[in-house]
Here is the input.
Amino acid sequence: MNGKENQLNSEPTFANLPEDVLAGRAISPAILQDLYRISSLTPLQCADVSDALAGMEVTGDASDVPNVVQRALGVTDDDMLTSVLRLVVNVPSDDVVSIIAKLKAWVDGHPSRAEVFPEERMLSAAASLCLLIADYPIIELNRKAQAIVQGVGNKFRDIKFLCDLRPVFDNERENVEAFILLANLRLGYESQDGRERVCEMSLTEEQLLEIRKEIDRALSKLEKLKPLGAGMISSRSIHDKEDS
Here is the structure.
């Protein structure tokens, strides 16, 4: 297979059978899809991705990880990039051996699966996974940050505004004396028990302006804290090098 081309035409659809669940060999269809895709990568591509991620500064921006991975892969295949990112970001290094074992058990669970994952492809997927997955400092830091965000509050999901014009009638409810402009806020979030919830409220224009002021203040505070956080991490890194 030519890893640089990564042409995965007629990619199969992955699913588990009830007996897979009962036998304890069920594996996420997304993981199966990712393993299928990375089986076409060359060892050099995997090593380039690993070196690029390991070389990222801990003080760097984790949002740049997709660009770093894409440059290291040397491909424009969005599906391949998605799979590699999903694996390196979500799979801890301690889980690699168990994932490979589960893949083999899943393939052995039905004769038709050997056509999708023949021995050569399965070995290639395992080799690519071993080369790609490591405890990259930039990703470990991002995981800890996400854990802190989720641990101290509800998880933001989405926000929507519906603007409305409400009439104000006279006492006899016959004539409209005025109109009130309202913005109906709908804030979606995931609570700490994992349930999706919604908070709704009506806001006047003055209240919206006050919220905007508070948002601007919060953004300003975050900008001032960024250099402080980067300086603390840089200082810690210097001390670590001196102690080693």
About this structure: The CA atoms of residues 5 and 37 lie 12 Å apart. The first helix runs from residue 18 to 23.
